[in-house]
Design brief:
The protein has about 140 residues and is of the alpha+beta class. The protein contains four helices and six strands, in the order αβββαββαβα. It has a four-stranded antiparallel beta sheet. Strands 1-2 form a two-stranded antiparallel sheet. Strand 1 and strand 2 form a beta hairpin. The longest helix is centred in the middle third of the chain and has 14 residues.
Length: about 140
């Protein structure tokens, strides 16, 4: 409880800390590191979530979050922060163990957004092309 309280104080002071399914993450990048970021729109059944995430991380992409538009709450956003298959597997297992619904279930169409990032812009482009080929990307 002390840690949660301290982290909330740091967040209130605008420190770049987010809560993930793997704990807290300090998201500030070193000044020399370049990162490309993009928001993509996807649609698929909940059962295809692992496949979608694996396509992205297999291209060297980090999936930062998932967002859906809820009729009552507006934008609902959750941190994912996965960048390799092991993290994807752990994320899916946590969802299953908690019997938690995927956020994409909040939108009847299954449409959801992801913030993705990568060290090279080409990785984002290649990941999008792979999602399109799999039928997950909404254009």
């Amino acid at each position: 409880q002390v840690i949660v309280s301290d982290v909330n104080l740091l967040k209130a002071k605008k420190q770049p800390i987010i809560a993930t399914n793997q704990g807290y993450l300090y998201t500030a990048l070193p000044e020399t590191a370049e990162e490309y970021e993009k928001i993509i729109v996807c649609r698929h059944e909940p059962e295809a979530t692992e496949e979608e995430l694996n396509i992205l991380v297999d291209h060297g992409v980090t999936v930062k979050d998932v967002r859906v538009e809820h009729l009552v709450y507006g934008d609902v956003r959750a941190s994912i922060m996965v960048s390799n298959r092991q993290e994807v597997k752990a994320f899916i297992q946590q969802i299953q163990q908690a019997n938690a619904p995927y956020l994409l279930n909040l939108d009847e169409s299954g449409i959801h957004l992801h913030t993705i990032s990568a060290p090279r812009e080409e990785q984002l482009i290649e990941a999008e092309q792979a999602l399109k080929k799999a039928g997950f990307l909404v254009e």
